Amino acid sequence: MGVIRNKKAFFAFLLPGLLFYIFTVFYPIVESIRLSFMEWGGIGDKVFVGLDNYVKMFHDPVFYTAFINNLIYLLIVVGMQLSIGLFFAILLTYMTKYVTLVKTLYYVPCIITTVAITQLFRSMYSVEPMGLLNQFLEAVGLGGMVTSWLADVETVLAAVSIPEGWRFTGMYMVIFYAALVSLDPSVYEAAKVDGASEMQILFKIKLPLIKDIILLTLTMCLTGALRGFDIPFLLTSGGPGNASELMSTYMYKKAFSSNQYGYGSALAVFIIIESILVVYTLRKLFTSKEEKEERKMEKERRRQRRAVR
How many CB atoms within 10 Å of residue 274? Predict the structure, then answer.
C-alpha cells in the first residue's frame, strides 16, 4: 500500500501503459479528426477544406446505404453472440460432465484466423461446387431456396453477418458461464425452498445479479459490430454493388483505395462518435435510479472531503 500511496511510483508504473495508449489509440483518433478537415491524397500538401468532407458525407447515398447495412449487421451479430452465448452458458450450468470440453469446443472459433473462417463460409455458401448449406437445403426438400448467397443482394448482408456472429459466440458463452457459476448458490436455493421455478430463478434472480456482466458484453458486442470489417471485406468487399457495404469497409475504400484520406477520416470520425454514443446510451439505460442516487451521494461525499482539506 505504501508504494501505491507514493505518487512518483504510481506514475512510474502508469507511464508505460499511458504512453502506449496515447500513441496507439489517442494519437490516431486525434490525427483522424485533424485529417477529416483536410483534402489529401496521401502525397503532397494537405488542403484545409473545413466541414466540406462532412457535408459530402451527409450528401453521399452510399454513406446512408452503409449506415443502414451496419445497423442490420449489428442486429444480427449482437443477437447471435449474446442470445446463443447466454443460452449455452445457462445450459452449461446444469451440466455435470464434459463442461470443459464443451467450453473448449465452442471457444475454438475465436482463435481461428479470419482468413480461415472466411474460406470456410465461402465454401459453405458456394453453388459450384455445391456448398454445405445448399446441400442441406436440397436434402431437406428446400431445393428452391438454393442460391449463391454471396452474390444475391437479398441474402448477402445476412451471409456476411452470420460468420462474425458465430465466431465470437463461444467467447461470450464463457463470460456468461463464469458470471453465473460465481453467484452465491444460497440466494437461489432459498428461492427454491419458497417454491420458485427454475425459470423464475433464472429471470428474477440470476440474470438481474449479472446485469453488469450483461452490460459489459453488450457494450463489447455493439462496439465490435460497429467496427466490423475483416470478414465482410474478405467475403464480398461490400458487394454486389453496395448490398453488403458497411461503414468500416466504405471508410477503408475511400481512404486506402481511392486515396481520399480526408473523406475517409470523416467516415472514421463518424464511426468513433457512433460507438461513443452507443456506450453512453447503454450506460444510461442500464443505470437504475438507486445507482444514480448512490453516485450522487458519493460525489457529494468527495466534495465535502475536498472542502475539509
Answer: 16
- Comparing CA positions, the residue from 292, 272, 65, 271 lying closest to residue 156 is 65
Q: Which of 201, 194, 158, 164 is nearest to 69 (CA)?
A: 158
Per-residue pLDDT of the chain (309 residues; tens, 9 = 90+): 444 567 777 788 888 888 998 998 889 889 999 999 999 888 888 899 999 999 999 999 999 999 999 999 999 999 999 999 999 999 999 888 888 888 888 888 888 889 999 999 999 998 888 889 999 999 998 888 888 899 989 999 999 999 999 999 999 999 999 999 998 888 777 888 878 888 888 888 888 889 889 988 998 898 888 888 999 999 999 888 899 999 999 999 999 888 899 999 999 999 989 888 888 888 887 776 656 666 666 766 777 666 666
Neighbours of 195 (CB within 10 A): 7
| H-assigned helices in the chain | 2-5, 7-21, 27-35, 52-58, 61-94, 99-111, 114-125, 132-139, 156-167, 169-181, 185-193, 198-201, 207-209, 211-226, 230-236, 247-252, 261-286, 289-308
Question: Which phi and psi (to 5°) does residue 156 adopt?
Answer: -65, -35
Taking every pair of Cα atoms in the chain, the longest distance, rounded to a whole number of angstroms, is 78
Rounded Cα gap, residues 251 and 69, in angstroms: 14
Residues 6+ apart with CB under 8 A from 30: none
